[in-house]
DNA sequence: ATTAAATTAGGAATTATTCCTAATTTTAGA
DNA sequence: TCTAAAATTAGGAATAATTCCTAATTTAAT
């Protein structure tokens, strides 16, 4: 199979169990709890492999470390532009939007059902009002 | 007004004239052509200020440096997950999607009309077939 | 079993970005 | 216009996240 090292299996399972959109560092900490021999470079390397294999998704952040997410089911992310908090939402790109995009881009790209929408969360909205 | 330093004005104009989704480094290089006295820290600092002011947008990249874009008109981005190429497309979040999101998130976040959709561009798709 | 390929730990190196400081520029008010 | 306060700058040091390097080990394939 694809995950033939003990380390990779542990790393994948840790990510599978975390529902908090963890950073690589946070994943490393959990992995370390399971097996303290696993090095940080192994965690980073395997995270990248798992992203390439489509087992997990990377959420690029406007600032700070990127976050990762096990692909439990189709869902997408909304990220607060100010604090980076990540929210899940369920939405599949509808045919019409897919067609709009394909015609605008002359079919130059194949969508991967991975959408990130930005916003400003209520907490950040409130604190900017105070200023 | 908001842009009261000569440097910030030059930086904004440089970004305005670039239609290539440049990195901070690429912006710095152009700025340096205009005025070689402007330092890299000034470019980075002002890029962040311009993003905060909503004059330009940051496009968080899956790998490599983030990219920036002058906000000429409402548009959004599709990013190739493999090579990072950025494509523009014109699309405003339709009411229905906005409502779906708001109800799912219990109005916890205000959308900022800034969407990133991932995909795999034809070049990367072709080269992965060869493998 | 044997060999080749893949993976690992650990730490060094890299890269992008932010931070620091003293000097300069800009702004706002009298 | 003059002056004081606030904002900004250049330049380089510091930071933080991630990737790279290497020899040793593990896994896979025959």
Describe the structure.
- 2 copies of one chain form a homodimer.
- Chain A is built from 5 helices and 5 strands.
- With 131 residues, the first copy, chain A, is of the alpha+beta class.
- In chain A, the strands form 2 sheets. In chain A, strands 4-3-5 form a 3-stranded mixed sheet. A two-stranded antiparallel ribbon of chain A has the order 1-2.
- In chain A, strand 1 and strand 2 (67-70) form a beta hairpin.
- In chain A, helix 1 (6-17) crosses helix 2 and helix 2 crosses helix 3.
- The longest helix of chain A is centred in the middle third of the chain and has 13 residues, at 40-52.
- Chain A is globular, with a radius of gyration of 17 Å.
- The mean pLDDT of chain A is 88.
- Chain A binds chain B through residues 58, 60-62, 66, 78, 80-81, 87, 89-91, 93, 97, 100-101, 104-105, 107-112, 114-122, 125, and chain B through 58, 60-62, 66, 78, 80-81, 87, 89-91, 93, 97, 100-101, 104-105, 107-112, 114-122, 125.
- The first copy, chain A, binds a DNA duplex (30 and 30 nucleotides) through residues 4-8, 23-25, 37-42, 44-46, 48, 64-66.
Features:
DNA-binding, three-stranded mixed β-sheet, two-stranded antiparallel ribbon, 131 residues, alpha+beta, 23% strand, 42% helix, 5 strands, homodimer
Please render the helix and strand layout as text.
2 copies of one chain form a homodimer.
Chain A (H helix, E strand, L loop, with lengths): L5 H12 L6 H11 L5 H13 L3 E4 L7 E4 L5 E5 L5 E4 L5 H10 L4 E13 H9 L1
Parallel strand pairs in A: 3-5
Antiparallel strand pairs in A: 1-2, 3-4
Helix pairs in contact in A: 1-2, 1-3, 2-3
Chain A binds a DNA duplex (30 and 30 nucleotides) through helix 1 and helix 3.
């Amino acid at each position: 199979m694809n995950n033939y090292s003990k380390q990779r299996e542990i790393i994948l399972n840790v990510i599978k169990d975390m529902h908090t959109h963890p950073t690589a560092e946070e994943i490393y900490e959990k992995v370390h709890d399971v097996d303290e021999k696993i090095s940080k470079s192994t965690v980073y390397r395997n995270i990248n492999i798992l992203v390439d294999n489509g087992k997990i998704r990377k959420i690029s952040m406007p600032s700070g470390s990127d976050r990762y997410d096990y692909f439990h089911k189709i869902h997408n992310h909304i990220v607060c532009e100010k604090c980076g908090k990540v929210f899940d939402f369920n939405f599949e790109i509808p045919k019409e939007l897919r067609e709009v995009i394909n015609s605008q881009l002359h079919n130059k790209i194949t969508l991967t059902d991975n959408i990130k929408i930005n916003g400003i969360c209520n907490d950040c909205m409130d604190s900017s009002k105070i200023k």
